[in-house]
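Entry type: protein chain
Record version: 2
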Amino acid sequence: MAYNLLKGKKGIIFGALDEKSIAWRTALRCHEEGAQLVLSNAPVALRMGEINKLAEATNAPVIGADVTNMDDLKKLFEESVKHFGGGIDFILHSIGMGLNVRKGKHYTEMDYEWNKKTNDISATSLHRVLRTAWDLDALNEGGSVVALTYIAAQRVFPDYNEMADAKALLESITRSFGYHYGVKKKVRVNTISQSPTRTTAGSGVKGFDGFIDYAEKMSPLGNASADQCADYCVTLFSDLTKMVTMQNLFHDGGFSFTGVTEAVIKQMEK
């Protein structure tokens, strides 16, 4: 059901790869709620994914950008402002890549050059996106920026590897830049800490299937789906959350504050 929560608003969605991705589902929901969109991803992701299908469904242009490259980001924002005929109201940062994870390196044996790239792509990219919007004055007064994170930034999940460190940095940037952007233009910057979700990226983590079943048993409401996360993103982009900023918002069915559940105890006693 649509409520026109984003009618007249304009936003950039980073990171939609395929129909499983949270960014993809969020783009569809934003479009349904009346928003105009620009879709962006890295050139290699544009070649690998199916983003043109999403572009057709949402009537949105696709503008490729390497988020580690300031020139690419400047071009993206300039072209987006031109396309919209004005400023931008919201941004979704759904970007992450763990090179050590992808290449099978254990956390205790990580390759530090790969780790630098992981942090650059997965965390510092948010700073670059915000910096570019800041320099170009591209975000409208009272705008909203949301980045996707995971509870491994606060708690140990061994197989999440270096991405836990990257997410911790991502959340720190959210707070720090969120302060400055709030003072300057009442722009909100938040992270959503989502349940483990069956996306193409998430499924690449070792032991993912076992963990998603565990999280389901540990969460009073069960795991939140990608579509439910998209709904939550819409509320944060809307005018209903104008005083929410610099927060890490758990969207995980209660997992983050549950010590143990009967379902987990029964599983352990088998």
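Comment: The two ends are 42 Å apart (CA to CA).
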